[in-house]
Specification:
heterotrimer; A alpha/beta (325); B mainly alpha (504); C mainly alpha (149); A: 325 residues; alpha/beta; D-Maltodextrin-Binding Protein, domain 2; 2 domains; six-stranded mixed beta sheet; five-stranded mixed beta sheet; 44% helix; C: 149 residues; mainly alpha; 2 strands; 68% helix
Amino acid sequence: MKPMKMLKLVCAALGLQLTALAPAPAVADTYPDKPITLYIGYAAGATTDLTARALAQGAEKLLGVAIVPENKAGGGATVAAGLLASKKPDGYTLAVLSTGVLSVRPQLLNLSYNPLKDFTVLMQYSHYVGALVVRKDAPWKNIDEFVAYAKKNPGMAYASTGTHTQQQIAVEVLRQCKGLEFKHVPTKGGTESNTALLGGHVQFIAGSGAHLPLVQQGEFRQLAIFHVKKRDPLFPDIPTLTEIGCPDNPPLGYVVLGPAGMPEAVTKKLDDVFKKVAESADFQALLTKFNLPYDYKDSKQLARDVPAEAEWYKNFFEKMGIKKQ
Amino acid sequence: MDFVANMVMGFGVALEPMNLVFCFIGVFIGTLIGVLPGIGPVGTMAILLPVTYGISPTTAIIMLSGIYYGAQYGGSTTSILVGIPGEAASVITTIDGYQMALQGRAGPALGIAAFGSFIAGTIGIIGLQLLAPPLVSVALRFGPPEYFSLMILGLVILTYLAQKSMAKALMMAGVGIFIGTIGLDTMTGTPRFTMGIPDLLDGVGIAPLAMGLFGISEILLNVEHKIKHEIVATELKHLLPSRKDWGESIGPILRSSLVGFFLGILPGGGAVLASFVTYGMEKRLSKTPEKFGKGAIAGVAAPESANNAAAQGAFIPLLTLGIPANVVMGMLLGALMIHNIIPGPMMINEHPGLFWGVIASMYVGNVMLLVLNLPLIGLWVKLLRVPYSILFPMILFICLLGGYVINNSVVDLYLMLFFGVAGYLMRKFDYEPAPLVLAYVLSTLLESALRQSLILSGGSMTIFVVRPISAGCLILALILLVSSILPRIRDRRRMLVEQAEETT
Amino acid sequence: MNADRWSSLFWFALGAAGIYASARLGVGNVGEPGSGFMPLTACAFVCVMALVVFLQSFGGGGRRLSALWRGVYWRRALGVGLLTLAYVLALESLGFFVTGFLLLVATMKGLEGLSWRKTLTISIVTLIVSYVVFKVMLKSTLPAGMLGF
């Protein structure tokens, strides 16, 4: 590294230290003045990763500093969460994760962080989708026919992207609500589920988004949409689980967060910037390409919704008798 | 549509200047990351994905595909030169390839790997063109029971890899399966053996495991001897494979290409399985099986051809059905979607230029790779002459670096070091790491296939024998198992009889 | 004693520990395997094979345990191992350049006794080339230590 650059960095670091000693508003005035690290809790190339990087690129231009994405995949993003919780709340370390890290995982595992106390949730830009998906040649034309058939033929097999995933829980809710019996075949991801359905090894799947290209191609059909209370505008003919009387689990969101205790001026600035980027045409186009709904929530709304989400899952797992490991 | 017309159109697309340039960039980067231990095609493709936003989808896919099959070429280089597999599919190549390098035959080894990869790649592309749709429907018939039986077959073939003690090799396979279970059990959601470390929730990881057991342990073992590589490097023979080498290799290359291609089509199957299945197959078919493990050139030709053919085969489910056969294909799927192309049965008709263009560019890319890699052989061989004192610190450093950048995680490095020390001790005590690594790769698929099958059958084990493909694999496995154990029993019995006769 | 005898006992012990840990996870039965089923089967297999190796070790011709380390510079191997451990421990706090430099210099100069000129040139060239390749060309993220680089 060139000596001049190093000298500049050292001075900047010193300068920042000095300004940190000053009263809080001074920090926000100069924020941001060095690169921001953005942890992405998922592998490079995953949908969350690609949307997070797009968000970072857009925000960079508005903030005037580099936002450096760093993939820290592992444990369903709990590694990234734990790491973020240990960082200073100065706005220079942020992360993009699923809210499942805050509301679902803590009910199942012992984690190094406190989900409700260790983070400042800044904004949400989308949520994870789910649907009950069958093959194009399946005998059921709609969800009612499906439920009727399932009642008479208990033990239908379905694939999901994993036990206790958002979509698998929805199927569980359906099962309990209508008094059905299913065989659950967990797989390692959307692709495996799709393959199992295409090959006829299972009769339906708890689609997690990876099914959508195949729906567009006409290979699959959706019978019910999970997690939302209103019908999906892209699929106005498909009812939601809530409509047929089985209110299911809230969807997990794609959120940007920072460690707890960030100064308000900083969070406000980040709020504004990310909102602008999320609303931009480029970003919206990207979401559409990935078949992701645009679901913006700001930090105030998230401060209400995330604990409520955690409550829902806590009750659900208690009812099911599932304990922490 | 007319086959020839398609190919003409395809080449028309592939030979456009822009596509040629990006094809070269792709295969070059692919070779580079294949050579560098640790970092793999997926991470690189993800990072370079934004670069593709500004170019046409066809060009983007050409470049990204180039990275993928280029990496297969590069992976064999480190396996042969320093005994460190560049990636999982090259683990088998280290067995005979590294031995050949130690015997001063690094040149022919690298050469046959390059030529074999080229021939296999070409065969794979032809297969891709002609057989795509019917093969896909066969691949879809593979459900959990079929995968389970296939994995059992794979495990049986592992026994063919045993160089010395069969019992020790089998033990290592058992350890490998156990290591494969470390992590979050996705079927029940319970963590297994993670000792509270969140990074272990996703399991140990093939890279730290292979790099540790092969790479770090190799370094540790080598530094115990003062003068090692200097002696070997002075005995350089020819740089390219001789006529005799070709004679021994051409059969394995052709057979392994076919087998590798088919295994690559199976979602989840892939290059690793192909590499050691074909190695075992060739060892079985060879007139001189005892040479395998000591530098038999067929032992390099077979896995290298297989993994390249498998790489081509993996494109089939993606391009015809929109189903990625492995993680790399998943990346390509994402890339296609970003460019508004939905892969699937419609894609061939809606975007013929893309489909046939990509296929044609694979031919072009394979030629480029051959041209790139052959002259490099001379360079690599010269590198071997560098004294080990200078070489190993650099290798150590690059391994550690490569291991870190996969997940930006020091935990991976701790694991690598742990397995490095474990590998060092294991090899001292004559336990081979290869069966462990390969069993590890099979372990996850084996277990999930078993449990998924039992869920589907409601707990009955008969599902494995009732379904034809599954039963077929199991029967084949049984035949192979018996035929590999029987000779050993026979030999031992003969030995005992001879001993008895001597005493009378 | 015979090296194989020791090693097979070691693996047997590991396998037994594995069986115990797997059993605690819940094995289920053959019709419905639990989390511990596969690891337990694998460990049981390891134990059986360890027994086989143990019995085979009585067949004569095995090496003695001490022979494995006679006549080799095992201290160098230990040194490399410890240096690597130090590298991994310090990597994220000291950063890519510092730890890489220290590792390369320590192994080349300290362990191998190369001249200062060779050590420094090779170390610096390696660092620069790997930086260019990994960070610039492949755009990976390299750990920056507390010194900022």
